[in-house]
Amino acid sequence: MEKVLLLHSSSDGQTIKIMRHIEASLGEGYQCELVDLNQLPDVEFSRYDRALIGASIRYGHLNKALYQFIAKHQSALAQHKVGFFCVNLTARKEGKNTPETSVYIKKFLQKSAWRPELMGVFAGALLYPRYKWFDRVMIQFIMRLTGGETDTTKEVEYTDWQKVAAFAGQFKAL
User: Fold this and answer.
1) How does DSSP assign 28-69, residue by residue?
2) Rounded CA gap, 35 and 69, in Å?
3) Rounded to whole angstroms, what are the CA distances from 137 to 18, 47, 149?
4) Is 113 helix (H, G, I), strand (E, B) or coil?
5) I need a surface site. Which of 3, 34, 112, 132 has the fewest CB within 10 A?
6) CA quadruple 94, 125, 9, 33: dihedral positive or negative?
7) Do the Cβ atoms of 56 and 12 come closer than 8 Å?
8) What is this structure's pTM?
């Protein structure tokens, strides 16, 4: 049985939901452990056969804890089968939903010395009723600027689950 480390940095839970979908897509023969990257865990990579890092974008940025974790575990990441994906609302648009076209992946690669073997980009979810007032107003403003949903009574999931399952297959093949 392969041991898989699933590290996440999630703002509102969609990254965790995507990780759980990947875990289910891996199927039997994989024992997965889900760990919150925001807690800056001390990970012993030698205990795992492969690892996957998923991180969400909030206000245009990945969580600083992600970069701290990568800096601390740079050599281990380079020696293991490790994939990376980011989750953002911009990826709901065609032409901004691949590692090659995502502005956030480009930013990530500029800020990080780590070069993941596998990268993915997934659209997240817009969960207006769950947001605190400030976040709801700011995200609504951003969505208005980018031609997105602005009705604050709605929850909209943009994640393409078939794309997530295909990515899980690529992760398995590492």
Assistant:
1) TTEEEEEEEGGG-----GGG-SEEEEEEEEETTEE-HHHHHH
2) 12
3) 25, 43, 12
4) coil
5) 132
6) negative
7) yes
8) 0.95
Rounded-to-integer distance, Cα 167 and Cα 122, Å: 10
Which helix (H) or strand (E) segment holds residue 128: the answer is none
Among 152, 77, 146, 62, which Cα is nearest to 110's? Answer: 62
The DSSP line for 80-91 is SEEEEEEEESGG
The per-residue pLDDT for range 61-83, each reduced to its tens digit, is 999 999 999 999 999 999 999 99
> Can you tell me the distance from the alpha carbon of 121 to that of 119, in angstroms, rounded to the nearest whole number?
7
pLDDT in tens, 130-154: 999 999 999 999 999 999 999 999 9
Contact 31, 4 (CB under 8 A): yes
